[in-house]
């Protein structure tokens, strides 16, 4: 795979199941499935302010037992052939069920992870930190510096683009 996105996929695939939340599977991240509601459900990407302003519609005979939705208010219902122009309310979810005390998500919240420049992700420990310092031939820890970065929509899109194009993703986005 071109770029570094494959490293991110491999990191999840190689992550031990002991780091996963109870009742969560790596397969849900590696091979996501869209629930089949009998209709095509489009992927909704948020606007720059984080909102999703897409509208969905259904036919007036919703009570017929058929659940068919569309994003086109001029579409005709395949069951009753009426115009599907009744607006539905869209409620965005958080994408993962909350697990008591764990904060939700796929991995356990008590673990710190290390993300390398090429998007290799590993659980962080004292040993893995020392190994990384040796790997990069760091002799004096005083020469290291911390960089706090902002991660908003713009940076997220830049990370996605860089992950498809290069091997030094974090450097190219946050130090360029």
From TrEMBL:
Pfam families: DUF674. It comes from the Eukaryota. PANTHER family: OS01G0153900 PROTEIN, OS09G0544700 PROTEIN. This is Uncharacterized protein. It comes from Helianthus annuus.
């Amino acid at each position: 795979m071109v770029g570094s996105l494959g490293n991110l996929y491999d990191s999840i695939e190689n992550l031990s199941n002991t780091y996963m939340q109870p009742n969560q599977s790596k397969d849900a991240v590696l091979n996501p499935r869209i629930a089949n509601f009998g209709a095509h459900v489009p992927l909704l990407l948020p606007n720059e302010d984080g909102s999703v302003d897409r509208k969905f519609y259904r036919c007036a005979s919703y009570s017929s037992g058929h659940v068919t939705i569309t994003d086109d208010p001029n579409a005709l219902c395949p069951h009753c052939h009426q115009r599907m122009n009744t607006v539905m309310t869209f409620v965005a979810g958080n994408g993962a069920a909350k697990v008591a005390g764990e904060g939700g998500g796929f991995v356990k919240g008590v673990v710190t992870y290390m993300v390398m420049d090429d998007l290799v992700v590993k659980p962080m420990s004292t040993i893995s930190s020392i190994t990384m310092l040796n790997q990069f031939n760091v002799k004096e820890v005083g020469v290291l510096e911390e960089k706090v970065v902002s991660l908003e929509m713009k940076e997220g899109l830049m990370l996605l683009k860089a992950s498809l194009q290069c091997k030094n993703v974090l450097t190219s986005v946050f130090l360029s």
